[in-house]
Design brief:
Blueprint: H1 7-23, H2 28-34, H3 39-48, H4 66-79, H5 81-101, H6 104-116, E1 121-125, E2 141-145, E3 148-159, E4 164-172, E5 185-191, E6 197-199, E7 213-224, E8 228-229, H7 235-271, E9 273-274, E10 277-278, H8 283-311, H9 317-342, H10 353-361, H11 370-384
Parallel strand pairs: 1-4
Antiparallel strand pairs: 2-3, 3-7, 4-5, 5-8, 6-7, 9-10
The chain binds flavin-adenine dinucleotide.
Flavin-adenine dinucleotide is lined by residues 89, 93, 124-127, 132-133, 157-159, 205, 208, 213, 362, 365-369, 371-372.
């Protein structure tokens, strides 16, 4: 057992950290407040390899291992939750399915551009107005008309939908399949400029201002038959595999946000005085800080462990769900206490901890709510004792 990062992972972490400390963190409040993506930084992420962390080198990606990918997303979370979500959705949801299931032509057509930083981001559209946790409720329909898929339906809450080149869309392709639900779905790559694809203005969200989330409607959207991703009827299976990796990313963002909030709280606790001493001298606050440091450490280890399992080619569904569940709920506690330590100033937009609290709140909802993670974990542990 070895808990050390490799020399390469340490160098990667430092390079990413330095970039984010310069290009993302100082600008985070401004972009969040303006509800704009930090495009100047995102453009520079291509050459650094951050946009291609789930793409092999032969297709223009950085080809890094899963631990390095988690480190990059954690550092992004430390810099800005919204930017972290954009990049996690781009790499984990928009690019990873093409890396995992795409044909050679699809990989060559989409991945090098996605990794470069010269084009827009990528998106994955699973959720619908009537189907989130229960994806068997998906209604968006794709029908073959000679050599084209014709797509009709709507999706909701899609990260990057208005800021991407293509949207991988989960559809019902064969409603009559004898094996029903799970074999009736497929994934189809829909270029964003396809006629009939309408992306609504960004949702007004509680936090993550520098990330856009949009509803989409598909009105007789036609794409070539070859845009089917992977095998027909494997859409739900592909979705679950994609979400396994996505959960490591959401857990990593949570660790990053919590780390940033703890650093703010430590700094403030040493400066602010009450009753003649810095508030860091009060035991009640020391316990909050100690709990935060402990829980962040535990969450980080859980996320790195799930990533390590992924790197070893071992199953990691349970460990990824555990990491995401613990890290996202931990981030909420840590950011909540960071506000508490700041007193009234914590409630002010002049200090970053209230933004971190709002950003962290999504992590227990997106890519499977905490309740869904508990369902996944419970199923696995119940199966294990048969
Ligand atoms: C900012 C943001 C970004 C997002 N980005 C994307 C994206 O890029 N792509 C995408 O496809 N989706 C995206 N989503 C959607 C997100 O994944 C869903 O919101 C999430 O999966 C929950 O689905 P829902 O909102 O429909 O909640 P519901 O499924 O309606 O759940 C409502 C409540 O019921 C609980 N619940 C549901 N079923 C059960 C059960 N069986 N047992 C116990 N409790 C249950 C849930 O945990 C939750 O508390 C995003 C959402 C947000 C807010």
């Amino acid at each position: 057992m070895n808990f050390e990062l490799t020399e390469e992972q340490r160098m990667w972490k430092k390079a990413v950290h330095d970039f984010i400390a310069r290009e993302v963190k100082p600008q985070a409040a401004e972009f969040a407040e303006a509800e704009e993506l930090n495009w100047p930084a995102i453009r520079k992420m291509g050459p650094l390899g951050l946009l291609g962390i789930t793409i092999p080198e032969e297709y223009g990606g950085s080809g890094v291992d899963a631990i390095s990918a988690a480190i990059a997303i954690e550092e992004l979370g430390w810099g800005d939750g919204g930017t972290a979500l954009n990049i996690a959705a781009h790499t984990g949801l928009g690019c990873a399915p093409i890396t995992m299931f795409g044909s050679e032509e699809q990989k060559k057509a989409y991945l090098p551009r996605a990794a470069s930083g010269e084009s827009k981001l990528a998106a994955l559209a699973l959720t619908e107005p009537g189907a989130g946790s229960d994806l068997q409720g998906v209604k968006t329909r794709a029908e073959l008309d000679e050599d084209e898929w014709v797509i009709n339906g709507s999706k909701a809450w899609i990260t990057n939908a208005g800021d991407c080149n293509y949207i991988i869309t989960l559809v019902i392709s064969d409603p009559e399949h004898p094996q029903g639900g799970s074999r009736s779905m497929s994934m189809i790559i829909v270029p964003s400029d396809t006629p009939g694809l309408h992306v609504a203005p960004p949702e007004k969200k509680m936090g993550l201002g520098s990330s856009h989330t949009n509803a989409i409607t598909y009105e007789n959207v036609r794409v070539p038959r070859q845009n089917l991703l992977g095998e027909e009827g494997r859409g739900l299976h592909q979705t679950l595999k994609t979400l396994d990796g996505g959960r490591i990313s959401i857990g990593a963002i949570s660790v990053g946000i919590a780390q940033a909030a703890l650093e703010e709280a430590l700094r403030y606790a040493k400066e602010r005085k009450t009753f003649g001493v810095p508030i860091a001298h009060h035991q009640a606050l020391q316990w909050m800080l100690a709990d935060a440091a402990t829980e962040i450490h535990a969450a980080r280890m859980m996320i790195y462990y799930a990533a390590w399992l992924k790197d070893q080619g071992k199953p990691y569904t349970k460990e990824g769900a555990m990491g995401k569940l613990f890290a996202s709920e931990m981030a909420e506690r840590v950011t909540r206490n960071a506000i508490q330590i700041h007193g009234a100033y914590g409630y002010s937009r002049e200090y970053p901890v209230e933004r971190m609290y709002r950003d962290a709140r999504l992590m227990a909802i997106g890519e499977g709510t905490s309740e869904v993670q508990r369902m996944v974990i419970a199923r696995k542990i119940l199966d294990e004792i048969q």
